[in-house]
Amino acid sequence: MNTPRRTFLKLSLAAMPALQSMPAWARSFPSKPITLVVPFAPGGNIDVVGRSLSVPLSKLLGQIVVVENRAGAGGGIGTASVARAEPDGHTLLVATPAQVATLPQMFKTAYDVASFQPVGVATRTSMIVVARRDDARFKTFDDFLALARGKPGAINAGHAGNGTPNHLALLQLENAARCQFGAVAYKGSGPALVNLLGAQIDVVFDQVTSSMPHIKSGALRPLGILGPVADPTLPGVPTLAESNVGRFDATTYAGLLAPAGTPGAVIDILSQALKKALADPQLNASLNALGSFTESGDAAALKTLLDTERALAMKLVAEGRLTAN
Asked: What is the pLDDT of residues 225-247, one digit of tens each?
């Protein structure tokens, strides 16, 4: 018996009590390739997380795991497609809590939090502000904030789309630093970074994961970490506390979700496979090299993150700070 098959059998046996109450069609799960829907364009943080997870999950579950990018509406298009999918565990969403909990607070969506069943938390990544290294205006985070305060709206700041964690981080920094940016929404971090590198915008609010290759190449400079804790992959880059700017935490968490109605035993198999995948040394090494860290949490932990994100979104909407436009 090969190792992947043995691991899969262990996962199935662990879920055996619930399997007995499942319909016959679900007892052979997974019976076909699994699709991980990434609701953003290639090159962003969630895309990196999804592709990194696909390899160990495929080995553990004994099926091909395909990553499919469905970008648009701040992640809403891809998220809605998973909400409509057959609840059999073969179509899953890789996302931050924002796509599930924030967007429905901003505009009418074909789904809400109840449309999904959390599988588990996968990663955490620092949110940063990055600028071109050759932009002499922004040598430090203090330089950046001074210009933002002195010339409201003058800094064109890209983010991954309205309602994304990147967008919420921008709004929170505006509130904390008492400044204003010229916000520019994109269909993911990838396109935003392309425009930043091409000098079409001034900065991008981004997760370390997607910006790290450009930081390592010397093309981009990280100005500040939008959270209370230093990032080991970015030595010397100041946190909010070190810059005396507020106390909010824009750290981005990514997780795995299934459509509501997915059988409990299937969720158990997926959750256990995710937990084992996150313990894979190779996965950890590849993610750490890009500035992301595994954050193994069960379905309850992901639900807590969803509830927290929803509360923040409701607050920003009530203040008139978070809108669809």
From this structure: 999 999 999 999 999 999 999 88
pTM of the model: 0.82
One-letter amino acid for residue 294 of the chain: T
**CATH number (domain holding residue 68):** 3.40.190.150
Is residue 16 over pLDDT 60?
A: no
Calculate the alpha carbon distances from 316 to 109, 112, 311, 324 in Å.
18, 18, 9, 12
Helices within 68-115 (DSSP H only): 76-83, 97, 103-106
281-289 and 45-61 helices cross at what angle (nearest 10)? 170
- DSSP state at residue 23: -
Q: Per the domain annotation, does 27 fall within a domain?
A: yes
Task: State whether 73 and 137 are in the same domain.
Answer: no
Give the bridge partners for 220, in sequence order. Answer: 132
Phi (first) and psi of residue 93, to 5 degrees: -110, 130
**Can you give the residue range of the structural domain that contains 295?**
3-125+253-318
CA terminus-to-terminus distance, the chain: 55
The answer to whether residues 66 and 34 touch, using CB atoms and an 8 Å cutoff, is yes
272 in the same domain as 190: no
Q: Which two three-digit tokens encode residue 265?
A: 């035993």
**Burial per residue of 96-127, b for 16 or more beta-carbon CB atoms within 10 angstroms, e otherwise:** bbbbbbbbbbbeebebebebbbbbbbbbbbbb
Residue 242 lies in a domain: no
- Nearest-angstrom CA–CA distance, 247 and 227: 7
